[in-house]
Amino acid sequence: MNNLYALILAGGSGTRLWPWSREELPKQFLALAGKESLFQQTVRRLSLLVSPSHLYIAASSQWGALLRHQMRKLLEFPHDPVITEPTARNTCAAIALGLTYILEHGASPEDSVFVSPSDHVIKDEDAFAEALKRGYEASKEGYLVTFGIPPTRPDTGFGYIEVEPETLKGNGYFKALRFVEKPDEHTARAYLESGRYLWNGGFFLFKIKKMLEALKEYMPEVGRLASEGYEKLCSCFEKLPSISIDYAVMEKAKDVVAVPLEAGWSDIGSWDALYETLDKDEDKNVTRGDVELASSEGNLVFGNNRLIVGLNISDLIIADTPDALLVAKRGSSQEVRKIVSKLKEEKRREATEASINVRPWGMYQILYQGERFKIKRIVIEPGARLSLQYHHHRSEHWVVVRGTALAKVGDEERFVHEGESIFVSKSTLHRLSNPGKLPLEIIEVQNGEYVGEDDIVRIEDDFKRNER
What we know:
The protein is of the alpha+beta class.
């Protein structure tokens, strides 16, 4: 499949997986089903099927640093694979932007592109590769291809694709008749029993030329701009309608086929879905972290750093983070979204802020936060440095626990070694750098009347961006 490209869509958030998944750190960037994040698993899976030079990721600018940070741990890319969306505008605009960018970076209009979400699990990668090959052949025949998952239960959380089972059967794909919304339980059960419906997994494959023509026909405000190139589409991106590619094109086009994807797929859309996906012990428990269970069965327990002990508990979801703990009955995790909405209405920072954040220079983790203070663990990559900055409302005390820091405080610049510390008073210009070849780790204690992340005035910034 030398003429196949891959476009990974890395936007979105999973509030049903709160408190682990939040607006600042959505589920695709979390290691929920293995040692790698869902995004990293997606990149690795597709890098085995397409050339790394043909792999791209579309995401809004807020995820650029996090994407590059996680990709550095996987493989070397011969290009910068990140296509930056000026703002979030759903999958139709994201795909259009990705196609115009790929075209201007060496692809032919006759080449095919596989579009994949970044927040799902695939257990059978051989079956996934086989389905991808069938979809590739269908795209070369001129079809717009979607991939549907044969339903195993009457699930009301997914959209469905109705197919005509006898059509094109010998080719391994079926004519798609219609896309339908998330049904009620009665309708979902009827879909399951009919054998004519697949879950809509959000995977697509098509020739670049074919999709751009379809956009002109069914979504002309997007298709017209896409025909004028990447820069033009970028400049008008914020004015584009926020609509999915399903609504914009796939539901309207006549030449759409569906390839069944039987590869152990899960969208990990909730804690319950995660429980069903992961391996269980002899008591049907799923645990992560430092967890001890006794006389307990059927639980999902996701720990963080502290010990969690469960005695005589059953069918619970327990998800622990440094600043929030979720305890719920299994089967009720769809209700988590409502709780998160309520927390947002109450302006609780735990609803949106993540305790771990990635920056272009490294990462930081909030260890504890009180009324007038915050404690952070900061890791700076070798050769990287933070902005030259100051704060109006807080002082900072840095303690080096690993490596050597080059600290600029006011007019003074000096090395700070392991076990040493340095103090930065309010309104004092300062910068931290890592001159070494290993990651620099420090503990930062902030103190003041306001310790929000937006109390930063940048004078110089290597990354030319407004970080939070």
